[in-house]
Prior knowledge:
The protein is of the alpha+beta class. The chain folds into 2 domains: 2-78, SP0830-like domains (Alpha-Beta Plaits, 2-Layer Sandwich); 82-162, no CATH class. 27% of the residues lie in helices and 24% in strands. It is built from 4 helices and 8 strands; from the N terminus they run βαββαβαββββα. The chain has helices spanning 21-30, 53-68, 79-87, 157-167, and strands at residues 2-8, 34-38, 44-49, 74-78, 99-103, 123-126, 130-134, 153-156. The strands form 2 sheets. It has a 4-stranded antiparallel sheet, sandwiched between helices. Strands 6-7-5-8 form a 4-stranded antiparallel sheet. 32% of the residues are buried.
Amino acid sequence: MTSYIALLRAVNVGGTGKLPMGELKAMCEAAGFADVRTYIASGNVVFGSRLAEKAVKKALEQRLQDYAGKPVGVVVRTAAEMAAVLAGNPFPQAAGNRVVAIFLDAPPPPGALQEATGLNGERLALGQREIYVHYGEGMADSRLKIPAAKAGTARNMNTIAKLAGMAAGKPAG
C-alpha cells in the first residue's frame, strides 16, 4: 500500500470552499483509502491506497465535486515525494512559514520563473512538480503573480514537514 498526501486547492481559505475535515475524511474512507488523517482545516489529508496516483486523484476529485457541486482541485504526492519536496527546499535557512512550495500536477515549464510579475524581494526556484517561493518579509503585502502556478496549491514548509512526517508514520502532534 502506498502512503499518499492529497492537497486540496482553495479549501477553507479566505472564506471560500468550506469543507469540514470530518467530511473530507469520510469521503476518503468511502473511496476505500486506509488510515485516513487530516491536518489543519485547509484541505490536507494523509492516507494509504493500493491505487495509482492518477486513480487516487480522480476518485477524490469526483467525490469532492459531488459534495461541492463544482470542481475542487486536488494535488497528490506520495510520502517519498513529499519528503523530497521538504529536502529539496532551496531556502533552508529561511523560516518555515516564509517559504512555500506551490504544488503542481506536472513539472513547471522552463520559463515559469521569468513569467512571474510583481516581485518585491521574493526569491523563486523550480522543483520537480513544484515552484518554491521565499517571501522574505512575509506574504501579506506580496503582489507576486506566477502564471504557471495558477492551478497549483501552496503549503508552507512547516505544513510540508508535518505532512511528510504523518505520511512516514509519525504522529501529527
